[in-house]
Structure prediction request, 846 residues.
Amino acid sequence: MNEIEEKNNIITLGFWIYLMTDLVMFSVVFSTYAVLHNSTFGGPSSQDLFQLPFVLKETLILLTSSFTMGLAMLAVQSRKAKSAVAWLAVTGILGATFLTMEMSEFAGLIRDGASYTRSAFLSSYFALVGTHGLHIAVGLLWIVIMICIILRRGLSPSTSRKLTLLSLFCHFLDIVWIFIFTMVYLMGTMH
Amino acid sequence: MSILLGKLTLDALPHEWFTIGGTVAVVGMLATLVIFLTYFKLWKWLWKEWLTSTDPKKIGVMYIIVSALMLFRGALDAAMIWLQQILSHGSSQGYLSANHFQQIFTAHGDIMVFFVTTGFLFGLMNLIVPLQIGARDLASPFLNTLGFWLFVSGAILINFFFIFGGQFAATGWLAQAPLSELQFSPGVGVDYWIWSLQISGLGTLLGGINFIMTILKKRAPGMTLMKMPMFVWTSLCSSFLIVSVFPILAMTINLLFLDRFLGMHFFTTGFGGNPMMYTNLIWSWGHPEVYILVLPAFGAYSEIVATFSGKRVYGYVSMVCSAIGITLLSLLVWLHHFFTMGSGADVNVFFGIMTAVIAIPTGAQVFNWLFTMRGGSIRYFTPMKWFLAFVATFTLGGMAGVMMSVPAIDYQVHNTLFLVAHFHTMIIGGALFGIFAGITYWFPKFMGFRLNERFGTYAFWCWLVGFFVSFVPLYILGLMGASRRLDHYDASMGWQWLFIVAALGLAIIALGALFQVIQIIVSVVQRKQNMDTTGDPWNGRTLEWSTSSPPPFYNFAVIPEVHSRDAFWEMKHHKEGTEVVYEDIMMPKNTAMGIYISGFAFLIGFGFVWHIIWLALAGLAGVVVCVIVYSLDDDTEYLIPAAEIERMENQRKLS
Prediction:
């Protein structure tokens, strides 16, 4: 194994460990939500607030972005810089759409008096979904930077490595979202 | 509240005698340092050779220096706590207000755990792990320097109220909710607590990730997992615990911050918040943290006892298994910190049994160490003395721990000084003695000369005697019903003399610390007599002793080939006349990026403490820009040609 490959290996392992630590961090907000989701303190409950069709659209958009990220990585592996950039851009746009929808959902809740200060349930909801949203925002910034790097430097080994990490990050966020969708929205709107 | 300065006003500046005293002391020390560095024109040397270095040997030394300073600071707090407890009984109220007293014991706990013990252990791991696995560096030199500087940034922030005023948390070292909520702690003290732990905790987390990568991926050829030295094993276990639980700490204090800053309701008393959830979350980090601190110390003892007994460590496989067992079990015991919460008999019994069960792997380690000594030709140098003191002290503290694992007994001694005495026995007698043993043992490797034995022995006896004089009275007081964090008690309790004895013990410990300082000075002055020219002053067994003392910055000119446990012992006794072939070496360049990022992180913390939003956002932007700039830089390493290595090696052999 040559040195670059070895270095890539080590960094990828490190990134995996980082993702696991991030997962532990998510697990704290998940368990907080599990404990507090009924503590509405007389305020609105999850049944009153969540609109499943809207969230389903969000979910499909995010899952599609995961798919386009996969296409971008295929392009990277076959050294097609232009198509990699294109698919990254599509991923970015889908991610940005998702984030905008989430922010508009937040804004709507706050406007309707269901803000994060209203009850422990809403605090834990905003913290859980917001933590995911913050990660998406970081991912978007990362995508933009990667597009710039590819355009300036092409697909060098170190760029490919960074793209691998980015795709891990995106898929990781999708998996986390599946759990949010299930636990917060599906279970929250069940009667 | 102004936009420019947030909650920061002139009132925040120090105006009580103990903060003014702190300010004068801190500013005086800094000024002396600046004058010294400027007079001797050492700034450039300091920046290039030390502060921006990515060499784990230098980062390790810096960790140890910062931790030693913090140990002094934390010990002053201990002295102030006991002085208050001696004076404040009956009609006398002592010399501190209740609030000051609370701030002091909070700072004492946080500093000793986060900035002394953790720092010392990271120092030792940085110094030893790469050498023991036959590597030239950690997996990510950048994350290492970044982790160190985040640690420093947190240490500055926790002490910053001395210079910039305000106050520290008065909530106990874990900022127990709902006391730490805005409603009950409106000042900035808890915010200082939040951000100093958040920043330094991030540093610890990065360090944990880095050491796992290093140990799993950078070992010398032939060193399988079951051939690793015990210190490497326990460092690996400790790192696994760090990455498992430090994220819990980060998110928990983040939720507390959201409560305080944005008015959310996770742990508040009203609006459906659940304060007991904070207790659960913080202790599911807090208990494993104890093992994070003590596991590397266990590893150091294993190395020391094997070396000074002249034998392989007894029961290596069972040592490894018990270290892993401790690692896993430590994740399942957190509830024993609050049996009195009333989770019901079943839950309490589960956690009680789990707690008692941890004594089994720990006991296995102790017996293995004793069996290692059996039949060995033991040499009683100071590291070995620390080890023997540890065995006695730690066993005693462990028994107290098993005793308290019984929920029925715990109900009696919960939150008393008995508990305080117990965990001081574990952390001083377990972790700190291990750190002193380790530093004495590995000192010649990094400085090229041994520490003075005579003063080391004096220091050892003072610490050991002082420790028992200090903490045996606390066990007794606890059984008599003295609760912890007590700023005043009734004269009729008859407790005062026991507090006086405890404080006398601290004076003896202080004498021990003084002997340690003298020991270092004397050792430096007389270094010619204790020079280590062989690289192997103790007749060691593991790879760190196979290179010279101090090692070259690339550690090994040729990466050693490992065939067995105790690899260096094997090499010494089966000499093979292979010819040395030098190869090119890639080494990491220095980088100041860790300092910049940590500086910006400090601004984030300081900005949020005082609600200076623009400053916090500027800090955040700074961090993001620095990370991006660093990630664009592919030129982080440089090559040393084989011929240059050969020249340096020959030169070192001559001198």
